[in-house]
Amino acid sequence: MSNAIETATTELTSLSYKLDDFPGVGKSALLGLQHVLIMFTAMIGLPVILSNILGLSPELRAAMINGVMIGCGIGTIIQALGVGFIGARLPIVMGVFYIFIGPIVSISNTVSIAAAMTAVMIGGLVEFALSPIIGKIQRFFPPIVTGTVITLIGVALMPIAINNAVGLNTPLFGEPLTLVLAASVIAIIVIVNRLTRGFMKAISLFIALVIGYILAAILGFMDFGVVASARWFAVPTLFPFGAPEWPGIGGLVAIVIAFFASAIETVGDAIAVSNTVGVEPTEKRVRGAVAIDGLGSTIAALFGGTPLTSYSQNIGVITLTGVGSRIVVAFGGAILILFALIPKVGAVISIIPAPLLGGTLVVMFGMVASIGVGILRTSLKTRRDALLFAVSVGVGLAVTVAPAGSFNVVPTGLRIIVSDGIVMGALLAIILNLVLPQEDA
User: Could you give the CA distance from residue 426 to residue 359 in angstroms, rounded to a whole number?
Assistant: First the structure.
């Protein structure tokens, strides 16, 4: 690891539990649940959106949600622990990637949902097969590029946090208590994190979420009817949407391009997590991260789930709580599988109000950006470096906040990449670092 990255990581992240530490079964389960709580609502959000767009029955909607949880659970365990060359052996939580909504809906409407799942399975296997090549991209991430990309990840994801915090597209939007709840959870996170030590500090996010959950219930933000109607036990089934069908070459190409975009973001996340836990982001780790990105997506699609990708949120969790153990994250993966088998438990978490989650994500994404800023503090030395940062972050943020439909003039295949701010910013940072001439500090 370069001195710039190592210095920034050491200063910003003091780990209570390091990469290979095992806190014990009880503590690992609680710390793993903390990771799950942060990403659970966003994770099931994609299948819920797709279910609404495609008009799925309650049974098929449940099948898609369960497929996502099983895929994310298995993918997270393999990502953390590793199986052969598959998995980064890092504390990376697997989630879903909303960039796939367009291709999946298009294939479902023109052919069938079964064909869309087939395209996901094939696309996942293509990413898996190309992982050795994609894994080599990490050599193009010197400190200036790494710091730029990590900062971009943190700030580009902030609109998601803000939209949740204000309750956008929910009945809570515009209500005074919505902002009170979001602000309260931010205050609770700060207070708990600063006033506690040891294990209590490690679960500061969990404590803040529990307090916020109780506060939300008192304020009437919760609909426990969802919990009452959820089943106690569910048996996952293979191919819930029917036998595999050929998706057509156009749909398949769109899915494969989306997987390429996912792989680029996974490379950035793998490097960021490596930096955060203080290990070298080797080609082997990056290759392993991309490999399970693809293979995990194929597994999820077998059960009716959507494609997977690494989640950036847990970088903030590691930074804030000091828990960098991959064993803990593997426990989180096991919890996700348990939720798929016991839907009623997952329903209790799924009703977390958007403002409560949004307030938490504001802090999480801010912590992600802080890691990038720490690296840039020692690696951004020349006007050339400043130009690289300005163009990459500027374009990345511009793409992120651009109004819907801004890129409809771009051909569909290219639009998948152009319309993702993090992917565009990362690609620009890599390209500019190669083409801009070096300058003396």
Answer: 26
